[in-house]
Amino acid sequence: MRAFTKAELIRIAHHHYPPGSTVFIDIDRSTPEFQRFSAAWKKALTWAQWASLLGELRAAFPGRPVGNVTQPGMSACLRCCVYLESPLPEGGRVLTRLAGAVSVLAPLYLVYATVQHIQADGTCTRPRLFWQPPDEIRPYAELLVQHLERELDCRPFPLELANVPVPGRCVYFLNAGEPSLLDALLSNDLGNLP
């Protein structure tokens, strides 16, 4: 399977987002672009492969919680998460959320992680986002990648194109700033995981 070019990804974004710059609540839902975006979400929400993937992940990560953390329509991706915990010497724990984001607009995925320290008294550090999962969870990340590629027939999102701008387009869930390919094809808030 060949990789998408920058021009192809921009074309996909233009196909699903109308010209303009506005916040989600003010968008014109009658545009052809919004109709295509909505149709992509409608199809994704009935995607049998997604349900199958979640079942496979639960079997592949025994003893580890696996969840669907998708926020339909609030981004351009379905998301799943594998929760990995390890103890800290002083009684707390490290919570790693290994996530897979799969675009509903193109056959692309991104595997990434957040790492958070939770102290014994319940206080927490802010989760730290890693576009490349840390070495200690790399085997888990590779297993997640294998399942995403096999079950969903998608390919990695090209991180080198993540910040390519998509100027003059209304990316529905982006409230400020110029959208990027990452914003348009996946999400502008991938680090926000339950």
Report on this structure:
The protein has 194 residues and is α+β, with helices and mostly antiparallel strands. Helices cover 29% and strands 21% of the residues. The protein is built from five helices and six strands; from the N terminus they run αααβββββαβα. Strands 1, 2, 3, 4, 5 and 6 form a six-stranded mixed beta sheet that branches. A hairpin with an 8-residue loop joins strand 1 and strand 2. The longest helix is centred in the C-terminal third of the chain and has 15 residues. The two termini are 33 Å apart. The mean pLDDT is 92.
Brief sketch in words of this structure:
This protein has 194 residues and is an alpha+beta fold. 29% of the residues lie in helices and 21% in strands. Helix 3 packs antiparallel against helix 4.
Shape: globular
Q: Main beta sheet: strand number and arrangement?
A: 6 strands, mixed
Give the helices and strands as they follow along the chain: HHHEEEEEHEH
**SS field, number of helical segments:** 5
- N-end to C-end Cα span: 33 Å
Radius of gyration: 17 Å
Low-confidence stretches: none
Number of strands: 6
* Helix coverage percent: 25-40%
Helix and strand content put the structural class at alpha+beta
The average pLDDT score comes to 92
Task: Tell me the strand percentage band.
Answer: 15-25%
